[in-house]
Amino acid sequence: MAESVTLARPYAEAVFGIARDENTLDAWEQSLERMGAIANDARMRDVVGDPKIGADRLNQLFVDLAGELSQSQKNFVRTLIENERLLVLPEIRQLFVDLKNRHEGVKQVHVTSAFPLDDTAVKQLIATIQPRFKGKLEPTVSVDPELIGGVRIAVGDEVIDASVRGKLATMAAALKA
Question: How far apart are CA 147 and CA 117, in angstroms?
């Protein structure tokens, strides 16, 4: 995994620079999402690994599957194929999204709840914690019944544990001291 990210980083940075300069960050993100999904498909991995498939044929197949791509996006696919880096597209996409979010001041927040949260509750929670993190927060929500109750919020390396399980662990540690 670390090797794939290392290989993907220069491509993600280059694409981010192009997209930022062309003011096409959202279009690139959508295209990279599609391309990453195609590259991650087991059948495409087999095609990429097949020595009988030439670069031109692979390029045509991939571009056809990816749908509408700009000329610079088609050139990008061609470059990845020529450098045998097509299969690191999922990592390129993730690094691109990270660069885009940093550029736009967006932070990913992962909310884990003991019970499912509706959209209104998530919006209220994000509105409550957003001033603390000084930027736009983009939430992903998951459910973990082991929390017993409450929520656990992670933004980058900062964690706010307002779960019953977390409070019980804190209480147990205090009693042992």
Answer: 14
**Pairing mode, strands 158-163 and 150-155:** antiparallel
Pair type for strands 136-143 and 106-113: parallel
Rounded to an integer, what distance in angstroms lies between the CA atom of residue 71 and that of residue 68? 10
pLDDT tens, position by position, 73-120: 999 999 999 999 999 999 999 999 999 998 998 888 999 998 999 999
The position carrying tokens 């603390």 is 132
CA angle at 103 for the pair 133 and 71, rounded to the nearest 5°: 150
pLDDT digits (tens, 9 = 90+) for 114-155: 899 999 999 998 999 888 888 889 899 999 988 888 889 898
Helices (H), the chain: 2-22, 25-40, 42-49, 55-66, 71-82, 89-104, 119-133, 164-176
For residue 17, give the nearest of 76, 79, 88, 84 by alpha carbon: 76
- Helix (H/G/I), strand (E/B), else coil: 116: coil
